[in-house]
């Protein structure tokens, strides 16, 4: 089944270190909480929470990121991993995600897809659009 969703993500914690091997090379560990802007209610019920932890390796604002997200619903949860790349020129991060574990009514779920993240209107706010295919 194809699904699309849009989430508002807020940075709740960010730790950044400079590598010092070249100008503006940083490593960051970022924690975010999210809430849906648009999504379809599924068999596990209404959205409850979304939390992600992401590692970023950037040089002058461009670079790879990888992380994990747990999205909880009333009667189940999805654990997913993701890998992406940020382009400093566009300010967009694009990548892929994959479900690695389901719980509750989503215990047999499998799925994968793509995502795009852009800066939101507020400080520390980001908007994530994702789409993909799920199978229960």
Give a verbal description of the structure.
With 136 residues, the protein is mainly β. It has a single domain (2-135), classed as AOC barrel-like (Beta Barrel), CATH 2.40.350.10. Helices cover 0% and strands 75% of the residues. The chain has strands spanning 2-18, 25-38, 47-59, 62-73, 76-87, 92-104, 110-119, 125-135. It has an eight-stranded antiparallel β-barrel with strand order 1-2-3-4-5-6-7-8. It is elongated. It starts with a strand and ends with a strand. The model has no long low-confidence stretch (mean pLDDT 97).
Tell me the layout of helices and strands:
Blueprint: E1 2-18, E2 25-38, E3 47-59, E4 62-73, E5 76-87, E6 92-104, E7 110-119, E8 125-135
Antiparallel strand pairs: 1-2, 1-8, 2-3, 3-4, 4-5, 5-6, 6-7, 7-8
Which features would summarize this protein structure in a list?
AOC barrel-like; eight-stranded antiparallel beta barrel; 8 strands
Q: Nutshell version of this structure?
A:
The protein has 136 residues and is mainly beta.
Task: Please identify the structural class as seen in this structure.
Answer: mainly beta
Biggest sheet features = 8 strands, antiparallel, barrel
- Stretches where pLDDT is under 50 for at least 5 consecutive residues are none
Query: How far apart, in Å, are the first and last alpha carbons?
Result: 9 Å
